[in-house]
Amino acid sequence: LHKLLDQLPFGKSIKLEDDMVCFLKAIYGPKVHWRCQEQRDAVGALLSLQTDVVVALGCGVGKTAVVLLPALIENGHTIIVVPLISLLNDWQRRLLALNIPFECFKGLQTRSLAGHANIILASADTAQGKHWEQCLSELSKPIYRVVIEEFHNYATDLGYRKRAFLNPYRLRNAGPVQLVLMSASVPSPLLQVLANSFYLRND
After folding, report:
1. CA 65 to CA 133: how far, in whole Å?
2. d(C-alpha 172, C-alpha 179), whole Å
């Protein structure tokens, strides 16, 4: 994977059909291809950085790849915010298994972010506050996007985790970055409510 990444200089124009499939195979194996058109379209939307994106793909359809492919070829950071510690642990296990570098922000336990990895993991509880914002401001590379995993939790779990899930638009404290909301399935009425809560851009 690292040899393949070295062959693609940062800033080169990315061809979705050729280069991205090549990276997909490098990560998951030579027989892997796009799982569905929606997965391919989502990767294209993330790479364009033109608008916020909602990724609603069923379990096993490839949401993880949608996040990893852009993050691996960009010269900047993708922040992944998860609602549960168990999901945070899952992300760490997946990235370690794939030999993909990452940092994990653990609130006050993390004095600063080294910035050596493109991917930064954080929980919904820690991705807020002055210390979080200070750590982000000290990064030398730009932040391209903030990915919110299982974003429906910001509506369904608000009652008992108000501190973590209240005012989700605060996740834009990383700056004028792309916001990506991810979930396996979200009913249309709830999707509109959450889109308004996150102040999604669609232009």
Report:
1. 27
2. 8
pLDDT score at 120:
96
Q: If pLDDT is split at 50, 70 and 90, which confidence band does 18 have?
A: low
Cβ atoms of 18 and 44 closer than 8 Å: no
Nearest to 46 by CA among 203, 174, 175, 180: 180
Give the distance, in angstroms, between the CA of residue 141 and the centroid of all CA atoms in the same chain.
16
Q: What is the DSSP letter of 16?
A: I
Three-state secondary structure call for residue 175: coil
Q: Give dist(CA 161, CA 125) in Å, integer.
A: 9
Helices (H), the chain: 2-6, 21-28, 37-48, 63-73, 85-97, 130-137, 153-156, 162-165, 188-197
Measured CA to CA in angstroms, residue 36 lies from 61, 62, 69, 127, 155 at distances of 7, 9, 15, 32, 28
Residue 10, pLDDT above cutoff 80: no
**How much is the mean pLDDT over the chain?**
80
143/140 Cα distance (integer angstroms)? 9
The predicted model scores a pTM of: 0.83
Q: Locate tokens 């499939």: which residue?
A: 21
Q: Crossing angle of helices 37-48/63-73, nearest 10°?
A: 30
* Residue carrying the six token digits 């993390």: 110
